[in-house]
């Protein structure tokens, strides 16, 4: 897999430029560069419980919280994923700056990473259950069954075996990685906020509002207001 290490914020814009002419590229941000591309249901703390069984219990108890009754199985699994249930889905986004957000907002002392994925084909969710897909790993575009999914321009890879990560051997397409050094994370977070990418916009609910205001309080000293107006006029 091709790997690039980010050198600066300016380098980020230059790096993303090459993906601009195609809408097929999808992006995923991870705040710890050592993590594999593996769904939550396949990770060590959750893999002892079969994810389809957990999902069945979730569906039975989630009815009273859902806005309507006629969700498809795929839509319900996407909602479960976005509300914290360990599933065989792995989040991706159509928008690279959303991926950057998830790579830089946590684990400030560790390098993060952005993965860029271009699959050879997309899964169809019309005729199959998410637990009966034939592909080992496939990418599909979900319907916007939640505001979070819509605001994050969400896509998913679905892993037939949740314990298997997406990698060079099974990628069935193109995969590369951008490493984000820990020392660039804070400045990138501030840049994203200026561009309107923050907890408030990506999590359009009370949790997102609370997280955004908490983040603002934690970073209050960043806005020191020490700028030279003459320098602004010269620029």
Please describe what this structure looks like.
This protein has helices spanning 9-17, 51-62, 73-82, 96-104, 147-151, 185-194, 199-202, 206-218, 229-234, and strands spanning 2-5, 26-30, 89-93, 112-119, 137-140, 154-159, 173-180. By secondary structure, the chain is an alpha+beta fold. The protein has one domain (2-234). α4 (96-104) packs across α6. The longest helix has 13 residues, at 206-218. The N and C termini lie far apart (40 Å).
Assembly type:
single chain
| Measured distance between first and last alpha carbons | 40 Å
Shape assignment: globular
Number of strands: 7
How many domain modules?
Answer: 1
- Major beta sheet, strand line-up: 1-7-4-2
Structural class: alpha+beta
The overall pLDDT average reads: 91
| Main beta-sheet strand count, sense and barrel state | 4 strands, mixed
Keywords:
235 residues; alpha+beta; 4-stranded mixed beta sheet; 3-stranded antiparallel beta sheet; 7 strands
How would you summarize the topology of this molecule?
Elements: E1 2-5, H1 9-17, E2 26-30, H2 51-62, H3 73-82, E3 89-93, H4 96-104, E4 112-119, E5 137-140, H5 147-151, E6 154-159, E7 173-180, H6 185-194, H7 199-202, H8 206-218, H9 229-234
Parallel strand pairs: 1-7
Antiparallel strand pairs: 2-4, 3-6, 4-7, 5-6
Helix pairs in contact: 4-6
In short:
The protein is α+β, with helices and mostly antiparallel strands and 235 residues long. Helix content is 33%, strand content 17%.
